Amino acid sequence: MFRPGRISKEKALQKLRHYCGYQERSHGEVKQRLYGYGLYKQEAEEIIASLIETGYLNEERFAIQFASGKFRMKGWGRQKILNGLKEKGISSYNIRKALESINPGEYAKSFTRLAEKKWFSLRGEKNIFVKKTKWRNYLLQKGFEPALMQSFSFPEKAGRNAD
Q: What burial class does residue 23 get, using C-beta atoms within 10 Å of its C-beta: 0-12 exposed, 13-18 middle, 19+ buried?
């Protein structure tokens, strides 16, 4: 978002309080916004420190919310969430906390639901090797671990009946 000219540090702080109060933000997102306002690095660091002190900015809280949202709303697996958090510049400690916040039971149910849905959507594919490859590639793209795929028992009979 380009703004002609610089805005004052106080005005930037006010705008960032609103920006962070609306939705959890990463430090990188806030820093980019501050640079977009024309502030210098020292001023940006001071504003970020102020936002952290007042509770508007919390990287751990952001990471947990990001992981939860991507898992529940988009059906992402742990690997894709991990890569998304790395892209946002989140620390490995906070990434670990975010991944631990995902309920293992819900994760397994989500994987099974997606795996079965994809498997049955490929019922027109007659070559079993091609079918398994497409199924596996889809789940890898969603960020699920290969170990989960290896332990999955394919519903062969149900798949044939659905044809």
A: exposed
The pLDDT assigned to 51 comes to 93
| Nearest-angstrom CA–CA distance, 149 and 138 | 11
Tell me which H or E stretch contains 138: helix 128-141
Q: Which amino acid is at 96?
A: R
Specify the pTM: 0.84
Phi-psi category of residue 20: left, alpha or beta, with phi > 0 → left and psi -120 to 50 → alpha: alpha
- Residue 11 tokens read as 């005005």
Q: Is 144 helix (H, G, I), strand (E, B) or coil?
A: coil
- Summarised one tens digit per residue, pLDDT across range 40-93 is 889 999 999 999 999 999 999 999 999 999 999 999 999 999 999 999 999 999
